[in-house]
Amino acid sequence: MVETASMIDTRLPAYLRLRDELAARIAAGEWRADEALPSDNRLAREGSLSVGTVRKAVQMLVDEGLLERRQGSGTYLRKPAFNATLFRFFQMRDAGSGQSIPTSRLLSRTRVKAPEAVAKVLGTDDVIRIERLRDFADRPFLSEEIYIPASLFAGFETIPDNEVGPLLYPVYLDRFDVFVASADDEVSFGTADETTAARLGIKTGEAIAVIERTAYSIKGTPLEWRIARGPANRFRYRSRIG
Question: In 115-130, which positions are buried (b, 16+ CB within 10 angstroms) versus exposed (e)?
């Protein structure tokens, strides 16, 4: 057992205790995304548990998106890529276009003093600001302003553009061992200022959708704050009830 096991609530069923212990070990960086976790049989022996109990605990972490099963290979930490879920808010089907995946253009990466509201969320005003555009079918559709703590991502602003890629969360994990486990999105509407309008190719004052996202570690520590803006006429929202 690891030291974090002492913090697990012993009143919980065995599979929940194991789930919490594994989550704590993941948060502590015990395994990387390209390293298989111990087999179910080994975890069962180490914890004096049944294999069924282990499988139930591991499956919970799979369902929660922290782990993935690879047929014939084992169980791995899942490389986070769900920052692409911002796309779900916008219509991205253009007639005659064979392109289905948005591209990303980095505009700037600078170490700055965070605005007060951002510093309050991240717990520090020493941050790296990332500005980028998302394009779809050769048209800009999402302008992003992203802030990450400099203490966790030292040197991010110096990584060559071609090594960053369209999704940031896998870069956070591969380069800095920072795993994004969850994120909260808040949607509102506003009007485009001059900078946003120029980036999106729309008129100043035109309606836009605004999505604020805070991303968290497994322990609930804020890792990133971003604001994304896109044309309101391309925004969509879908909810299924029941």
Answer: eeebbeebebbebbbb
DSSP calls for 27-59: HTT-S-TTSBPPPHHHHHHHHT--HHHHHHHHH
Token duo for residue 86:
């911002």
Helix (H, G, I), strand (E, B) or coil at 208: strand
Two tokens, residue 201 = 């190719």
Number of CB atoms found within 10 A of residue 96's CB: 5
**What number is the average pLDDT over the span 120-142?**
92
Helix spans in the chain (H): 14-27, 40-47, 51-63, 116-122, 168-176, 194-200
CB-based burial label for 192 (10 Å; 0-12, 13-18, 19+):
buried
Torsion of CA 13, 19, 25, 31, to 10 degrees: 150
HEC profile of 54-92? HHHHHHHHHHCCCEEEECCCEEEECCCCHHHHHHHHECC
96 phi/psi in degrees, rounded to 5: 80, 0
pLDDT of residue 3: 41
Would you say the pTM of this structure is higher than 0.85?
Answer: no
Q: If pLDDT is split at 50, 70 and 90, which confidence band does 23 have?
A: confident
Q: Are 211 and 86 in contact (CB under 8 A)?
A: yes
Distance CA 45, CA 144 (A): 48
**Which one-letter DSSP state was computed for residue 6?**
G
Cβ-based neighbours of 10, under 8 Å, separated by 6 or more: 17
